[in-house]
Amino acid sequence: MNFKIGDKIRLLNEKGEGTVSRIITKTTVGVTLEDGFEIPYPAAELVLIYDKTKAGEPVIKAEAVFQTFEVPVSDSKTSHKKKAEPKGIYIAFSPEKINDITHSDMNAWLINNTEYSLLFTYSLFQNGNFITLETGTAKAHESLLIETIDRKELADFSNFKIDALFFDGKEHKHLLPVSELVKLKPIKLYKENAFTVNSFISEKALIMNVWYMDNSFEEEPNYESKADLSKILFQKKHHSETAKKSKPNASNNPAAEMEINLHIEELIDNYEGMSNAEIVIVQLKHFQNALDTAVNEHFRKLVVIHGVGNGRLKQEVRNILASHKNLQFYDASYSKYGFGATEILIS
């Protein structure tokens, strides 16, 4: 939506209202909040309340629903006693000028609070694509300054992704790779009480967890039985080295669409005690059955909601899709599904 200076708006993902006071870019505007501070904000996350160029009563528009991936933020109590944080991967933001937060640039830190070394990438999500800003190695229990963000560009850094591989020079347990999407609400970086004393860096910072180390992730892989889960689960009796072909669908019904949700709680009533691998097997079996139905019954489109998680389920789904011809697949609508769905077109 194209906002104009003077428009009254409501924040979509935060409590608060304000006035558009500046047009920064086509996708970012300056919003002056009720407390008088101006904050750069993505236009897609604002809702118009009153258009000053139109006469009559203020227009109230329904708020769109965006599925976003929220991560927990560390305790905001301003205690000077540092506490031990759970093992995992964190992102931290610290102002270069703690006494002038509203005008300060922000330092972004990658924190490896594990016993493993990491190979990592730090990518920004913009215009439907990822831009890799930094790659490198983080030693065990190391905090790395990965970039300094100009205050004027903070609104562009609201969605980013961390990918990480774990390794160790000595004998160690296997950990699955991490691929997590993180949503940062830039308005938090204008609140002094969001920056707290922490156990990672010497500066006060806003600490965001990317991934917690959970013992359930420490699985010794069975490379013989799980090397390619999708192929092993759904291989045919008469295996061919050539790629599989979906059935011709010249008579596809343009209105025939299907949507499936692979979250395990949607598939079975009781999944307590199941391992991650067992859960993935159930999810992929359900997906394969839905895909076969969509192809055989000449559906035009299939949307698969797989969630974000650590990225394993999404990758397995796409491994299966890549083995079919006449299928096109890509990320589904962000405004409707967030980052957690794949859309498949059947030709």
Mind explaining what this structure looks like?
Helix 4 packs parallel to helix 5 (312-322). The protein is globular, with a radius of gyration of 23 Å. The protein folds into three domains: 1-66, SH3 type barrels; 88-217, Smr-associated-like (Immunoglobulin-like, Sandwich); 223-346, Ribosomal Protein S8, Chain: A, domain 1. The two termini are 33 Å apart. It has helices at residues 223-226, 229-234, 264-267, 276-296, 312-322, 334-337, and strands at 8-11, 17-23, 28-33, 38-42, 46-50, 88-95, 106-113, 117-126, 129-138, 142-149, 159-167, 178-183, 206-212, 244-245, 257-261, 301-305, 324-325, 327-331, 341-346. The protein has 347 residues and is of the alpha+beta class. The protein has six helices and 19 strands.
Structure in a nutshell:
By secondary structure, this protein is an alpha+beta fold. It has 6 helices and 19 strands.
Q: Which structural class do you get from the secondary structure elements?
A: alpha+beta
User: What CATH architecture of the largest domain do you see?
Assistant: Sandwich
- Examine the coordinates and then state which fold CATH places here, giving the name of the CATH topology of the largest domain: Immunoglobulin-like
Q: Which residues form runs of ≥5 with pLDDT under 50? A: 55-82, 215-227, 235-252
Strand content: 25-35%
Distance between the termini: 33 Å
What string, H for helix and E for strand, traces the elements in order? EEEEEEEEEEEEEHHEEHHEHEEHE
Number of separate structural domains: 3
What percent of residues adopt helix (DSSP H or I)? 10-25%
CA radius of gyration is: 23 Å
Name of the CATH class of the largest domain: Mainly Beta
Shape: globular
The number of helical runs is 6
Largest sheet: 5 strands, antiparallel
In total, the number of strands is 19
Strand order of the largest sheet: 4-3-2-1-5
